[in-house]
Amino acid sequence: MSFTVAIDGPAAAGKGTISKGVAAHFGFAHLDTGLLYRAVGRRTLEGMEPIAAAEALTAEELQQGDLRTAEIAQAASKVAVIPEVRAALVDFQRAFARRDSGAVLDGRDIGTVICPEAEAKLFVTASAEVRAERRYLELSAKGDDVTREQVLADVRERDARDAERSTAPMKPAEDAVLLDTSDLSVEEALAQAITLIAERKPATP
Questions:
Q1: 161-169-97-118 Cα dihedral, nearest 10 degrees
Q2: Which of 28, 52, 90, 111 falls between 20 and 30 A from 200, CA-CA?
Q3: Contact call for residues 131 and 13 (beta carbons, < 8 A)
Q4: In the 8-state DSSP scheme, what is residue 32?
Q5: How far does CA 83 lie from the centroid of its chain?
Q6: Where in the chain are the domains?
Q7: Could you tell me which residues are beta bridge partners of residue 7?
Q8: Domain 4-198 of CATH type 3.40.50.2000
Q9: Which range (65-74, 80-89, 90-99) has the least confidence?
Q10: Distance CA 108, CA 198 (A)
Q11: Does the pTM exceed 0.70?
Q12: Nearest alpha-carbon partner for 176 in 120, 129, 132, 131
């Protein structure tokens, strides 16, 4: 029996780390749907038209190791506002979500658009300042030449673009549980997420 976990939230709130941990705990498959948009964004930086890039996307492109740069993140956020790009990627995500072994999908519109019937929904968030600091440390560790002020500005710009887009704006689903990680360690946030999801998961006979 399929069981879908939808985990949404803004950049650097911790939803990716939580999603991976949840998937590992329950033995579910995991899909970071942001990678779909990052892969399309990378193609546009190479000169490809966004809709064509989305329609031609392959699963293999999600395995490429250069999708986590700040430049690609901004490109991903820009192509994500294009309705035709989002439409081209919907079927890929929905097919993944309903696999028999269970699935965890994280993104910005999983609980509201991609999987509105998901059995468990979380909206993971944190303050812009906390998220910017996390992202700054992540980028600095990779050698990116960024400042805290620049990263905070990027986070706020991306939040606004994601929340204000006309198609599938980022917002909690009405039945999603809010998980604020601002003052939580990774271990604490993951433990809370697992507890919330376990409450919604049918007992195994």
A1: 140
A2: 90
A3: yes
A4: E
A5: 18
A6: 4-198
A7: 106, 122
A8: no
A9: 65-74
A10: 22
A11: yes
A12: 120
